[in-house]
Amino acid sequence: MADEEEESELSDKQKVEIAKWFLLNSPPGEIQYVAKDVKSILNDDVLFDEAASEAFPVYNKSHLICLALPNRSGDVLVTSFSELEGNAFLDPRTTQVATVDHVKQVCTGVRPAADEELPSPYIEEYRCSLDAEILKYVEEAYPKGVCSVYCANGKDVEGPGADFELAVVISAARHSPQNFCNGSWCSIWNVEFKDEQQTVEIKGKIQVGAHYFEEGNVQLDAKHECKDATLFQASDDCAVAISGIIRHHETEYMASLEASYLSLPDSTFKDLRRKLPVTRTLFPWHNTLQFSLTREVSKELGIK
Amino acid sequence: MDAAMGLMRRIPPKHTETALSALLSLMPHHSSDLLSQVDQPLQVMCDVDCGKEFILCEYNRDADSYRSPWSNKYHPPLEDGSLPSLELRNLEIEANDIFAIYRDQYYEGGISSVYVWEDDNDGFVACFLIKKDGSKTGQGRRGYLEEGAWDAIHVIEVGPEDENTNYRLTSTVMLTLTTDNESSGTFSLSGSIRRQMNMRLSVADGHLSNMGRMIEEMESKLRNSLDQVYFGKTREMVCTLRPPSEVVQLRMPES
How far is A109 from chain B (nearest CA, A)? Predict the structure, then answer.
C-alpha cells in the first residue's frame, strides 16, 4: 500500500513524459488510437493536451505524414525540411504554405508562399528538375507514394561558386485497420552540391515499419543508411543521375528486405526455436516414463 | 483497463517492459490486473544451491521471493513460503527433467522451468516456461542474430482426474529478432501472440505426456503462425508500399 501511495505521487511532469513516450512509440498511422487510450488513462485533459502538443509535431515530422491541402490543390508533406514558423509547412511544387493542426493531423489553411520563403532561381532550377525526375520514379515504384524536394541549405545562393543542399523526401503509407495492418515507408535523401569539388554527395536514410495486430501484435522495424556520389553537372543531368542513384539504392534495399524475409524460416528463426527437434522427429512423450525409469535406475546405481 | 490493454496491443512488443512499468506508475490501483494480464519478458535467477538458473513468474513468487524448481527453495530465502504437496512436487521434479530434454532438442540451449501447484477444484495447474537468447553473443549457434529473444509461457489447468481429464492450455510467445549487416541495415521483427487449446485426454499415458504433447503441438503452431502469418503479413505490407522490382518489371508491358 505504501508503494501505491508513493507511486500515485507521480508529478505532472512525469505523467506528461510518459504520455509522450506512448504517443511517440505509436506504430505508423495509429497515433490517434494511442492518443485516445492515453487520454483516458491520464484522465486529465490539461496534461494530455500538453503531451499531445509536444509529441504530435515530432511524430508527424518523423513519420513524414502527408496531409491534403484544403483547396484541393494537392498534398503537403510534414517534414523538418518544409517547416516554417508557426506550424506552417511549405509545398515547393505548388509554392504554397499550409498551416497544420498537428494534433488533428489536418491542414487548416493555405496561402501562397512569400518570395523570401522560396529558393533563388538558380537553386530552384536544380530543385525543380530533380523534383520532376523523382516524381516520375515515385509514380513508377510506389503505388501510393508522395514525394517532395526541398532546399535544405543555401537557398539564397544566386549562382555557381557556393555549396548548397537539397533534400529528397519519399513517403508511402498504408492504413488498413479493417485488415489489422498498417505500414509506412519513409526515405530521406540529403543531396549536397559541392561547388569546389564539382561533386554531388548523396546520403540516404530509409525507414520501413509495419504492424500486424489480428489476435497478436507483431511489428517490423527496418532501417538502412547508404551513401553515393555523382558529378556536379547541369540541372537536368544532375536530376537524372541523382534519381537514378536513389532508384538503384531503394531497389537494392527492397531486394535485401525480401532476402531477410526469405531467410527467416530456415536460418534466422532456427536460432530461436527449431521447427523440429535435432532428432528430426517429434519428441517421444510416450517414452517419458522410460526417461524417468532410467533416472530412477541411475539414481539407485548412484550414476546420476 | 481497456485503454491500457489497447495500448499494449499497439506499442512495439520490444518495448513491452517499458510500457508496462509506465502503465504501472500511471495506474497503481490497477497493478494486479496489469501484472496478470500483460505478459512480459521472462526474468531469470540463479539457484544458489545448485548453480542452475531458473525462470521467475507469478506462479513461483511468494512475497518478494521466487521458488527454484531445482532446490525447491525460495530466493531470497523466505520462511514458510508456500510449497506444492509432495505428490505435486514429485510431478514437478519429473516435469522439469523431461522438459529440459525437450527444450534442448528444440531450442539447442535456453533455460526452462516448470512449476506445479494445487488448484481449487481438485485438479492442479502447471506452468511451463522457456527462455532462449538466440543472439550471436548468446546461444544462437548459427550466429545470424544481432539480437534474438524467445520467451514462451504455457499454463495448463488440469481438471479433476477422471477416465478422461480436461486440459486447458493457454500459451504466449514473445519474441524479438534483429539482424544487422552492411548491405541491408537493421531488420527487426518483434511480436507477441497468445492462444488457447482445450483437450480431454485419457490419463493412461500420464499427465506429463499429455501436457507435453499439447505444448509441443501448440509451440509448433505458434512458431508457424508467427513465421508464416504474422511475419508474412508485415512482408505483404512492405510489398504493397513498394512492390519489389520484379513485380514492377512484370507490370510494365501491360501498361
Answer: 29
The rounded distance, in Å, linking the Cα atoms of A144 and A16 is 35
Reported ipTM: 0.89
**A183 and A48 co-located in one domain:** no
Q: How far apart are CA B154 and CA B216, in angstroms?
A: 10
Work out the minimum CA distance from A216 to partner chain B, whole angstroms.
4
Task: For residue A283, give every residue at least 6 positions away whose Cβ sits within 8 Å of its Cβ, in sequence order, or none.
Answer: A277, B102, B105, B106, B212, B216
Q: Which of A88-102, A260-274, B32-46 has the highest mean pLDDT?
A: A88-102
CB contact under 8 A, A211 and B179: no
pLDDT at A7 over 60: no
Within a domain: A191 = yes
How many Cα atoms are found within 13 Å in the side-chain-facing hemisphere of B32?
1
Burial of A62 (0-12, 13-18, 19+ CB in 10 A): middle
Q: Assess whether A96 and A140 both reside in one domain.
A: no
Which 155-174 residues of chain B touch chain A by CB within 8 A? Answer: none
A300 lies in a domain? no
Rounded CA separation A10/B235 (Å): 41
